[in-house]
Amino acid sequence: MQTQVLPVHAERPEPEIIQKAVEILRRGGLVAFPTETVYGIGANALDAEAAQSIFNAKGRPARNPLIVHVPNAEAVEQVAQSWPKDAAILAEHFWPGPMTLVLPKKSCVPATVTGGGHTVAVRVPAHPVAQALLRAVELPIAAPSANRSSRLSPTEAKHVLRDLEGMIHLLLDGGPTTRGIESTVIDLSVPSPLILRPGMISVDSIEKVLGKHVELGFKQRLVPGQPLTSPGLLEKHYSPYTPLEITETNETGRQRIEELIRKGLRVGWVPLANEEASAPSNKVIVMPLPMDPVIYAQKFYATLHTLDLLSTARIFVTLPPDTPAWMAVRDRLLRASHNSN
Ligand code: TXA
Ligand code: MG
Q: Which of 15, 89, 134, 176 is least enclosed by beta carbons within 10 angstroms?
């Protein structure tokens, strides 16, 4: 299969380009497109065969369910059986935007999409290209991140091609995404709301609008050796091909780097810094990220993609502080480094 790449205006997508994507999706094909978080690989969510081709292209385990994208909250009823009060409150505050809600599914949603489960994850993305596509296609679109399973998520079209060239029909290139980290996933199919994946919509802001405490369902999975409670959230995830090692501070990173340099190895380094951090040697490629969680998240995957392509022996990343604003970034880093130390 040849992958066609079409540039599209990020704010005012050209209708004729959107129309090409619509035709492919209606025929059961695969189209990668930008959302405000990361690029997604989309297919008709009501077509089991089309959804299956997403799993094949990504090499994704069949039990890991897909997020279904719709243009607005009203369209959720096409795929979900109920609309709890918490869903209405959260949708009112955070949609369109980087939030996904897990709800009881309708029978029209194929088991392929939901990983065999009885719930469906839904999201209303804010990106103008995603919005234009969803409104024009008039179908719910299943779209996981457009990367091979367990690999780095794509925030630019070239990252999508790196993993999926020849496996998708069309890629809409709308430039770099703005939020940079995948949506916050909240399970509302259980008696009290459960955060399954932290994102840039923080736990604090969710608790504030709901006026109650929400449980974190992802933390335990970061404890090595504990069994997975949710099949979809695999421990190792978001990983570059190069082994990634996290360090608590820039200083401990510098020490580890010096050990590797003494062995003659080249390494990549992502220290936390607001100014240029100096490279300890020409064997180190330094790409600092700032102490600001929003800017950090925006540049996070692109930085790791760049270092990954430079074929170093190891990438070192300084772990940001353990505060609520950094929860999503820390979650991605802990998973990306899983088993590579
Ligand atoms: O920002 C995002 O959410 C991006 C863009 C493209 O929308 N999508 C994305 O999809 O990150 P994906 O497939 O890479 O991650 C979906 C996450 C997985 O952790 C999956 O296990 C979880 O959502 N998920 C999907 N459906 C679920 C369900 N019914 N129950 C529980 N978890 C679910
Ligand atoms: Mg993903």
A: 15
